[in-house]
Amino acid sequence: MENYDKSLKKIFKSRLQAIQKLPKIDNNKSIVDILEEKGISRRDFMKWASYMTAYLGLSSSFVPTVAKAAEVADRLPIIWLHMAECTGCSESLLRTDTPTIDSLIFDYISLEYHETIMAASGWQAEQNLEGAIEKYKGKYILMVEGGIPTKLDGHFLTLGAFAKTGQDVAKEAADGAAAIFAIGTCSSFGGIQAAAPNPTGAVPLSEITGKPVINVPGCPPSEKNIVGTLLHYILYGTLPALDAYNRPKWAYENRIHDLCERRGHFDAGEFVQSFGDEGAKKGYCLYKMGCKGPYTFNNCSKERFNQHTSWPIQAGHGCIGCSEPQFWDKMGPFEEPMADHLFHGPFGGLGADATVDKIGISLLTVTAIGIAAHAAISAVKPPKE
Amino acid sequence: MAQLNESLKIPCKEEEVEFGVAFRWQHWIRALSIVVLAVSGFYLAYPFLSPPVNAEPTGFLYALFRSWHEIFGFVLISVILYKTFLFFFSKQHANERTSLGDFLNPKVWMAQIKYYLLIEKHPAIKGAYNPLQFVAYVSFYIMIFLLILTGLILYTNVYHSGFGGLINGPMRFFESLFGGLSTVRLFHHILTWGIILFVTVHVYMAIYNSIFGKEGGMDAIFSGLKWKKKH
Ligand code: HEM
Ligand code: SF4
Ligand code: SF4
Fold first, then answer.
1. Are B212 and A383 an interchain contact pair (Cβ–Cβ within 8 Å)?
2. What's the CATH architecture for B25-230?
3. Ligand 2 in contact with A311 (CB < 6 A)?
4. Potential cystine with A217: which of A134, A188, A262, B221 (Cβ 3.0-4.6 Å)?
């Protein structure tokens, strides 16, 4: 372990040195200054850093390294694009009751281009984007929020004064990026607009660029997963350890179910039977109310949302599996267990409300009728010997 | 005696060993496991029982069902592996492999279908199973192997160390082939219904053959013996 830590430290050190050599995005602003200006003490900052260290699965001896990583973030410009989405992921990152260290790093420093929070609009915005892509070519981090419509040559989504398609904007920005993060389920897997019948032909970001894309799914992902991925990139370089769906393992390795606070009730067989019943008041497991925690890989049960205030299951509703590919089609109905999954209208819509059990019982009935008929005929007219 | 038989016009039959002891044991162990797995599985899918409310949370009912499900899951895996070995290598059960010949013979196929449609006599088959049976059994094994695979994928996500940890790598690979854990769970459930349908028809055919087949059909799986018409 010690040797492992040592070699990690070496890697981190050379990464940090390299990044520190880069010019600052804005010479008049540094993370340290901004934090001070906003009334965040060094002590708070170090607390935050030790928190993030644990979060990234590093031992406490890495706290200064992680703090350093956050401080050099003012050298990494971020271009944030909005595709077909609801801006919920930006909200998750930026809308906090008091400016957090996470939001400060993004909001005041690194975000070179972000349509929701920038002052520029219209022609000027267009120019800013082109300028940023040009100026930081090969150096910036691209974060994309939203799925990318591809039907009608991508014209389901056009942006800016030149009415460029989202597809073209994303492609161009991806070409010059040093690293690409797909923020949120839409950008990672297509999300809700890619749900059947997907009228706009929305696809994940990874399908329109040949470059590797790190997916940070969730609807929305927590602010910690977004910032954590950035810190992870600063420390480790290009690619963090990823799972089969290109999600960073440090955040998406376990199921919601594995660390859920209601898990004891699950194993005990104590389930909420209807919203608002006695079990619900006692905090029983939400499995029978359709919780998809057993099939969903994410860390909400550990991290929660809004500065660890709460998360869906704590609030009394099951997980809907929002960080899984095609969750809208696969996890529904959201308030029924997986076994009650509805199949997309087979037989021209006739089977639209068919669950496995309904289909199974129908087939069993047909089989039973067949058997009875065959047996009856055989009794009257036995088979030839 | 022979004369007596002759005069009574009872066609002479002789005993023939159809299934060995091990074969019969594995069949019944497998049958038991499937029943336990299906019942406990439906509980896992929709927990229809809740334990009495207990001040101390010690009655882990769901965990108990899952434990039995997994215990019998591994029993099933063992007997299926054993059975697979018998199929390919057992001398005594070469008749199972011989069935492949009948299976590839279209004449036997047609005759067999006609037999079940009550049109024609039962064809003479060389192996243990007629072609329809053979297809049914092959699809049964495909389903069982998929159930085991999906079961093990679910298992590695419930138990992260020990055997669960050992198989984690390959199982997670299969998990993504299925398109996520939720789909794995759904497949596991769909396949359960496949097995239920198979068992229904299988039991019917077994009874049918023991009534009309005149070879003592069902006896074979209990005693191992089959009554063969003397030719
Ligand atoms: C005839 C064979 C089997 C049948 C009929 C069967 C049936 C089922 C059913 C119906 C479910 C619930 C699925 C749902 O939620 O919709 C289930 C869950 C499960 N099965 Fe099986 N199963 C079989 C074999 C196995 C095997 C071989 C294993 C491997 C050890 C296994 C491990 C599991 C696990 C781990 C779960 C999930 C439990 C949880 O998430 O807590 N099953 N099974
Ligand atoms: S509430 Fe959901 S995630 Fe939590 S234990 Fe129950 S099924 Fe698992
Ligand atoms: S609890 Fe489930 S549905 Fe809710 S945010 Fe987390 S992964 Fe998404």
1. yes
2. Up-down Bundle (1.20)
3. no
4. A188
- Taking contacts as CB-CB distances below 8 angstroms, the residues of chain A near B64 are 269
Best mutation target, B42, B43, B62, B188, to test chain A (most A CBs within 10 A)? B62
Question: Each residue of B55-68: pLDDT tens digit?
Answer: 666 678 899 999 99
| pLDDT tens profile A71-98 | 888 888 889 999 999 999 988 887 766 6
Tell me: the pLDDT tens digits for A242-295? 888 999 988 999 999 999 999 989 998 889 999 999 999 989 999 999 999 999
pTM above 0.90?
Answer: no
Ligand 2 contact, A271 CB (< 6 A): no
Residues of A in contact with B69 (CB under 8 A): none
| Region label for A124, one of left (φ > 0), alpha (ψ between -120 and 50) or beta (otherwise) | alpha
A258: helix, coil or strand? helix
pLDDT in tens, A20-78: 888 887 777 788 888 888 888 889 889 989 988 988 888 888 999 998 888 888 888 88
Instruction: Spell out the domain ranges in chain B.
Output: 25-230
C-alpha–C-alpha distance, residues A105 and A35, integer Å: 9
| Complex ipTM value | 0.77
A166 in Cβ contact with A204 (< 8 Å): no
| Domains, chain A | 2-252 (3.40.50.700), 257-340 (4.10.480.10)
Partner B contacted by A239 (CB < 8 A): no
